[in-house]
Design goal:
heterodimer; A: alpha/beta; Rossmann fold; five-stranded parallel beta sheet; B: alpha/beta; Barwin-like endoglucanases
Chain lengths: 438, 134
């Protein structure tokens, strides 16, 4: 016999879907099927069952092979590395629960580390813009029930947040949006004709890198002022048309993604997007929301902000919290060679950092805590596999609209495997001893 | 052999997401991310068949990937490599004091390289870290 577990949380993207059904074997040890999840979420659940999974820590040997060691030895190694470093970088945190993040921060405070999460290469510039001019935002429930004007600016949820459109933004029938997608108008701004753009009422195929110009043109068009004939590759008539459509809604929202945060202009692009939202509020109700990537990157920002006052790139090396992206951010620290040890948990900078930074990681003493084999584990000296959060251990996570949701455990991890939090607790206790902290 | 100059952006694709969660050591990850999506007109200018290996070079590095016809086009002049180790060999790492590398908008040169292999993800990163050609 099998058991079906309802209302399971999906630990893949920031949409944090909470309606999955997972079929497990009667003894709760095998995960058999996943319903309702997108193809990526399904793969994440099923990969936890892979037979070739690494289940014990592995220490890289000089000849390129790996030696299996115990979790105790791995915790000793990690604690010694962190305690000996002058300015270690503790990066990642987005694919784990808030409990583990908090434990990690405790270690970081003792060893004087820089703590950074994946916002560094994702929505970090958004956070800078929010600190600049604020964020008029709402929850995804409000979007589902009220929003009739949706903008996707530089994001492609059809690929990155596959169920976002069906659960919240385009198709669902909400309280005031009873006709589903027929009650909504969609605007997509993207230099490619993405699969999201194919669903749009208006697709503005912008010249890559000119988001600031077009956002600025929107502010002008919303006020009905003069525009040049073409802005960022878009004829002015289309900008006026889109602006009028947005003003004509009852409740609108701008979702934005990497297209604006990683393009030149960076935080200033988002400043301008937030200013567009502010301007539209002179005519109707408008909100804006970043499309957060990892399922708990928002949670990492919340926990860091709650504990140290800043949402990412927090430098604790002087004994108090400093925050200055560009100075205390992972990419810059690695590129300039300013850190002397690398601890990665719940992220894969080996794949997703520019190569210059990856090379630096390979030269440093390094520990990678990750359930998967990744390029980061491939260049780190020690790889510590752990249980999958959201599959084999529960814990608190934050959805992209800052709503906390408790992830659920659905299946047992392989025999003897630890969770992120258990491993970090072992490291914390050892660091305490080394540092002589009571 | 013809070369073309295009504007490179990187980002998520659903195949990238699935392959990443399925295991980055597997060949599927290379199939999903070791590619460059080019507009049909750019492929024509390059004089390459679809699914030919090409060498993509920027000011910051060089990598071999497979050129495929874009799935989300047309977008002449723009090339897309899904986020991952292949794209990160060549993207602009400069943050201009924002903490954020410029993952979108790197000028690159594409040339046909039919006899050079596209490496697996972990292998690519390890080789590049040792300073071997990728």
């Amino acid at each position: 016999m099998t058991k079906t577990i309802p209302d399971v949380i999906c630990p893949f993207c920031g949409t944090l879907c909470d309606d999955l059904e997972v079929v497990v074997s009667d003894d709760g040890k095998k995960l058999l099927e996943v319903y309702n999840a997108c193809v990526i979420g399904t793969e994440k659940f099923l990969h936890s069952q892979a037979t070739d999974r690494v289940t014990r820590p592995r220490l890289a040997q000089p000849d390129g092979t790996y030696k299996e060691i115990s979790y105790e030895e791995a915790a000793d190694y990690t604690a010694k590395m962190l305690a000996a470093a002058k300015k270690p970088l503790m990066y990642g945190w987005s694919s784990t629960n808030c409990e583990a993040q908090s434990m990690g921060h405790e270690i970081a405070e003792m060893v004087g580390a820089v703590v950074d999460n994946t916002a560094a290469v994702c929505h970090g510039t958004t956070l800078i813009a929010v600190q600049d001019i604020g964020l008029p935002t709402c929850t995804l429930g409000e979007v589902k029930n009220r929003a009739d004007r949706i903008i996707f600016w530089g994001c492609n949820p059809a690929h990155a947040h596959p169920r976002h459109m069906s659960r919240y933004s385009i198709f669902p029938r909400g309280f005031f949006t009873g006709k589903g997608h027929k009650s909504r108008k969609i605007v997509v701004v993207d230099p490619r004709v993405t699969d999201t753009a194919k669903m749009a009422d208006i697709h503005l195929q912008i010249t890559q890198g000119q988001d600031y110009e077009l956002l600025n043109a929107f502010r002008v068009a919303i006020r009905g002022e003069w525009l040049p004939d073409v802005v960022a590759g878009i004829p002015k008539e289309r900008i006026y048309e889109a602006a009028e459509m947005l003003k004509g809604g009852r409740f609108g929202i701008i979702f934005f993604g990497m297209g604006v945060t990683q393009t030149l202009g960076k935080n200033h692009n988002i400043d301008e997007a937030i200013a567009v939202t502010k301007d539209l509020n002179d005519y109707t109700k408008f909100s804006i929301m970043p499309m957060r990537g990892h399922y708990n990157v928002t949670g990492s920002g919340e926990v860091l902000a709650w504990q140290f006052g800043y949402p990412y790139s927090v430098d604790l090396s002087r004994g108090f919290a400093r925050y200055n992206p560009g100075d205390t951010s992972s990419i810059d620290l690695l590129a300039r060679g300013e850190v002397d040890a690398m601890f990665t948990l719940g992220s894969d900078p080996g794949s997703h950092f520019p190569f210059r930074c990856v090379k630096r990681i390979s030269e440093l003493p390094s520990v990678c805590v990750d359930p998967h084999l990744t390029p980061t584990s491939g260049v780190s000296k020690l790889h510590v596999p752990v249980a999958f959060v959201g599959v084999e251990v529960g814990g608190n996570c934050y959805r992209m609209d800052n709503v906390p949701i408790d992830a659920r455990k659905v299946v047992e991890p392989p025999e003897g495997m630890l969770t992120d939090e258990q491993f970090l607790t072992m490291v914390r206790d050892r660091v305490k001893k080394i540092k002589g902290v009571a | 052999m013809a070369t073309i100059n295009v504007n490179l952006i990187s980002g998520r694709s659903i195949q990238q997401g699935v392959a990443m969660e399925g295991g980055k050591e597997k060949p599927l990850y290379r199939t999903a991310c070791g590619i460059i999506e080019l507009d049909p007109s750019d492929l024509k200018k390059l004089g390459a068949w679809k699914n030919t290996n090409v060498r993509v070079t920027s000011e910051y590095g060089s990598v071999v990937v497979k050129a495929i016809e874009t799935t989300q086009g047309p977008h002449p002049g723009i090339a897309f490599i899904p986020m991952g180790p292949w794209a990160n060999q060549i993207v602009n790492p400069n943050t201009y004091s924002t903490g954020m590398p410029t993952f979108k908008g790197t000028p690159v040169k594409v040339e046909v390289a039919p006899n050079q292999p596209v490496l697996l993800g972990i292998e690519l990163v390890q080789k590049a870290c040792r300073g071997e050609p990728t």
